[in-house]
Amino acid sequence: MFRVETRKSGLNSAYVILDLIYHSTVRSIRRNHRHALIGLLSNVLQTIIFLAVFFIMMTVLGMRGAAIRGDFIVYLMSGIFLFMVNTRSMAAVVGAEGPTSAMMLHAPMNTAIAIASSALAALYLQVLSIIVVLGGYHVAIAPVTIDDPVGAMGMVILAWANGVATGMVVLAVKPWWPSLGGIAQTIYSRANMIASGKMFVANTLSYTMLKVFDWNPLFHIIDQTRGFAFINYNPHNSSVAYPVYVTLVLLAIGLIGEFHARRNASLSWYAGR
User: Fold this and answer.
1) Which of 9-18, 179-188, 264-273 has the highest mean pLDDT?
2) 164 closest CA partner among 239, 212, 112
């Protein structure tokens, strides 16, 4: 009898937490726009602008010949989509409500639920944007063929997880240095504009140039994605294991740091600011 009641209590608690994550995710999606569709359209428009800018830049600079043999727009999408998933998920986690937020006064709300909902909201918007842009290109311009869509989707999830893990580290430091969030987001997104290597094909880089980029997990993720997307491209200078290991390490550091910050959080930290 005791075991049955304990099991029911555990299931009820899990249901309450999942329900709370769902509603918090919806709230995170509608944080900037009251209507979720407006937020989606805004994200899609930003993605299209990114594509247009890089298409014009690479055409003007004569870099189209250095791309993978196949659809040039799909080549650009493979880099820009993952860049946006990674940076947006990092920004979403950094912007999640902390232990001193007024929302934490409403039980059973906690920081874990706030972080999970922010991360899931970012993933939802980015995946939906990818589907809309790819679908629009497929219908209106040219058919899109992905050699291994399951593998490519796995890399999207890995890019999201890496962004979440990076955001967790910044979020853990944020209570001690409140202005770090905005600074870290700006530096991270600006650095990854180049360091992610989305404009280059890893197999064509020299050893010296490769060392400039291969420290970055996102560089490996984007290169592996192109291996899944294009049938005639086999990535030799990147791996899936490296970003997975880096993500797990960053996530562990972030969880430990966030736990310590939450245990020591106080509203008085911000009293003199």
Assistant:
1) 179-188
2) 112
Closest CA to 193 of 94, 82, 95: 82
- Give 19-70 pLDDT, tens digit per residue: 666 666 766 666 666 666 777 788 888 888 888 888 888 788 776 666 677 7
| 195 alpha-carbon distance from chain centroid | 16
Q: How many residues does the chain have?
A: 273
Higher per-residue pLDDT: 12 or 154: 154
H/E element, 101? none
- The CA-to-CA distance between both ends of the chain, in Å, stands at 54
With 0.70 as the threshold, say if the pTM is over it: yes
Distances (CA, A) of 243 to 54, 65, 168: 25, 28, 16
d(CA 96, CA 112): 10
Q: Each residue of 182-193: b (16+ CB within 10 Å) or e?
A: eebbeebbeebe
Spatial separation of the C-alpha atoms in residues 221 and 85, rounded to whole Å: 12
8 to 2, 4, 109, 151, 176: CA distances (angstroms): 10, 6, 21, 37, 40
| Residue in the structure block whose two tokens are 């245990």 | 263
